[in-house]
From TrEMBL:
This is LysE family transporter. Signal peptide: none annotated. The keyword Transmembrane applies. It comes from Achromobacter seleniivolatilans. The chain crosses the membrane at residues 6-31, 68-89, 110-134, 140-161, 181-198. The keyword Cell membrane applies. Keywords: Cell membrane, Membrane, Transmembrane, Transmembrane helix.
Length: 199
């Protein structure tokens, strides 16, 4: 079982990565904008299914590969830390808002495939989920349960964000400031991840 501090870091890591803008969150927001909140809320089920499959595959692969290449998990964690730092830098310098309109309806299959191919999957498997989650069924189920409990409300917030963008309720919101704030959080997470590798 994870210690209290390890569980706290696990929860923070999941929350930060799930909340940051990316292909899946952009689709969720665009669906909320185009289709409304209620019809789009079910898309979080496709998001969860895509992440569970992706994380499970990457977690098992990295665990088996580490037996032959014991240095691989450390290298992947360092690469993940650098990737997060790059995302933070890119988010700071880009003022891109969530698309103002979606060209077509976004369905379950589209969101599932986008999430399955989302690079966040390998990040979760290599740097955020505990190694024990891919070695012990009870730890795997517990980790996935925590992940699901965090994913659903965060996904719904992205749908709600998109659904309210077209109205008057968010005219006070400055997307550039929000994005820069998210990039600072992302940068701090990158530093924390790097520190966990070299401590």
């Amino acid at each position: 079982m994870l210690s209290a501090s390890a569980t706290g870091l696990f929860i923070i890591g999941i929350t930060v990565v799930l909340a940051m803008p990316g292909p899946t969150n952009t689709l969720l927001a665009a669906a909320g904008l185009r289709q409304g909140f209620k019809p789009s809320a079910r898309l979080t089920g496709a998001e969860l299914a895509g992440y569970v499959l992706s994380i499970s595959i990457w977690g098992r692969f990295l665990g088996q590969a580490a037996q032959v290449l014991p240095w691989l998990p450390t290298v992947v964690r360092v690469a993940s830390s650098l990737y997060i730092a790059y995302l933070a830098w890119r988010m700071w310098h880009a003022a891109n808002a969530v698309p103002s309109a979606a060209q077509q309806l976004i369905g379950m299959r589209t969101l599932f495939v986008a999430t399955l191919l989302n690079p966040k999957g390998i990040l979760f498997a290599s740097a955020i989920f505990p190694t024990a989650a891919f070695q012990d069924l009870a730890q795997y189920l517990l980790s996935m349960a925590i992940f699901a409990l965090l994913l659903v409300p965060i996904g719904l917030m992205w749908v709600l964000f998109g659904a309210t963008l077209g109205g008057d309720r968010l005219k006070w919101l400055d997307p550039a400031k929000m994005q820069r704030g998210a990039s600072i959080v992302l940068g701090l997470f990158s530093v924390t991840l790097a520190w966990s590798v070299f401590r």
